[in-house]
Amino acid sequence: YSYVPETVAETGITIWTFGEQLSRMTGFEIDAWCSSDPARPKLHFSPIRNWMNDPNGLCIIGDTWHLFYQFHPAGTDWGPMHWGHASSKDLFHWTHLPVFLHPEQNLWRLGATGGAFSGNAFFDRDGSLKLYYTERLPAYDLFEGYREVQKIAVPGRGLVKAETITEILEKRPPGVQHDFRDPKVWWDDAADAFRMVLGASIDGCPAVLLYGSPDGISWNYIGPLYHAPAHFQECGARAVECPDFFPLEGRWALVMGFVGYTEPGTGRHNLLYALVGDFENDCFRPISDQLQLLDFGSDFYAMQSFRAGERQLAMAWVFNWETRKPGNSVYSGELALPREIGLDERNRLTMLPVSEFDAAYGSTVIPGRSSGAFALSGTPFEIRINGQLEGARVKATSGGSPAFDVSVEAGILSIILPQDNGSIHYRNDIATDSNLRIIHDAGIVEVFAEDGAVCGTRRNYQNIQPDEVTVISSGVVEVYERKSG
Ligand code: FRU
């Protein structure tokens, strides 16, 4: 690679060394360098440079949030996966830290081409942090192409680097092909033992696997926690990725992505689905078989949630593999705004930006009438409409050219971007007497309706700095600028 391993000075200042391109930058210089790129979102996390995908190992230690993420330090495309690392005091302003975990770390195998894949943070009962993750080992198994095994990384002092790596699970259950990844581990009081879910497929059908362990190290297969309906396999789904399973307000929620799935009729893919139900005696019983589409925008994937005090928080990757940042962007991939997960009276998961958002990015009301045109200064902005949503339309433009268009017609909420060329695939039913929030940041459009029960995230790369937004609505309209306080 052109990438050179990094150091952290004893002073606590991060020194980030990136071959010729960026050398020995302090945190301040990194921030200045990142914000000098007008195309880089301001409210949303992005890597300093090069490729990122899934958020990993999310946790809070003391007053510090830690975010790890799938990172390819040698290029702006997906490649051998490392774990990037950043920390924050407020979930919005991040300090970029050295690469935490390397592929086949501590084995020093030359030219490792597999990767340290996604995984979760787990605090053991003695308070120690263990990061459970998947290692993809390439080409050892000639018939399968690659092999995925589960490992634990235990961080060294100051969480700078994964130090101890332990392989915990290699053997796949019968019928499970090479996709066998993305562990989420918890301590289960009822079972008085550890539990883990993994994404996989069984005889070709996407499934979530449940494992148990007395010590967190040796694991036994309990059985499938969930089998996807045949529809998913018929529409291209190969396996479940990034399964997330967590207790929420007396119930349990299962969130998962289906790799390879394309929705018939719309062509949408990269979609995440949720089920809410009860979990007893190692058996998950959804209240309804109807999967909830977690975000209809299709640029919101690989969500990972975690417990922080009384709240279940989540982050996800904003990307869809098809539309790419134009030309010579130094990085690829961003994260959606951190969201808090709730459960509504219809047992739907709800997601709204965490309360820290208001503290980090204060809202200044842009004066205007309840409906009409609002001039924008180029900073991120938010529009809220409360009450009657039917007939609402929010159209942002840049020099008169469309940037995005969000509307509600006959109870259907849609998000239209310039790249759609007339197709309106990004739509969802909503209750028209409710509420709508639209947040825009340099081309990332996040929409929340019905108190977060309906979410749509889309990434746009054209006209990303709108100078005007026109709001037509018979509801109560507020337009805010979102600036760092
Ligand atoms: C989801 C995913 C995970 C995997 C990781 C690899 O986007 O495919 O299943 O662990 O990305 O980068």
Automatic annotation (TrEMBL):
<keyword id="KW-0614">Plasmid</keyword>
<feature type="domain" description="Glycosyl hydrolase family 32 N-terminal">
    <location>
        <begin position="44"/>
        <end position="351"/>
    </location>
</feature>
<dbReference type="GO" id="GO:0004564">
    <property type="term" value="F:beta-fructofuranosidase activity"/>
</dbReference>
<dbReference type="InterPro" id="IPR001362">
    <property type="entry name" value="Glyco_hydro_32"/>
</dbReference>
<feature type="domain" description="Glycosyl hydrolase family 32 C-terminal">
    <location>
        <begin position="429"/>
        <end position="474"/>
    </location>
</feature>
<dbReference type="GO" id="GO:0005975">
    <property type="term" value="P:carbohydrate metabolic process"/>
</dbReference>
<dbReference type="InterPro" id="IPR051214">
    <property type="entry name" value="GH32_Enzymes"/>
</dbReference>
<comment type="similarity">
    <text>Belongs to the glycosyl hydrolase 32 family.</text>
</comment>
<dbReference type="InterPro" id="IPR013148">
    <property type="entry name" value="Glyco_hydro_32_N"/>
</dbReference>
<dbReference type="InterPro" id="IPR018053">
    <property type="entry name" value="Glyco_hydro_32_AS"/>
</dbReference>
<keyword id="KW-0378">Hydrolase</keyword>
<dbReference type="InterPro" id="IPR013189">
    <property type="entry name" value="Glyco_hydro_32_C"/>
</dbReference>
<keyword id="KW-0326">Glycosidase</keyword>
<dbReference type="Pfam" id="PF08244">
    <property type="entry name" value="Glyco_hydro_32C"/>
</dbReference>
<dbReference type="Pfam" id="PF00251">
    <property type="entry name" value="Glyco_hydro_32N"/>
</dbReference>
<dbReference type="InterPro" id="IPR023296">
    <property type="entry name" value="Glyco_hydro_beta-prop_sf"/>
</dbReference>
<protein>
    <recommendedName>
        <fullName>beta-fructofuranosidase</fullName>
        <ecNumber>3.2.1.26</ecNumber>
    </recommendedName>
</protein>
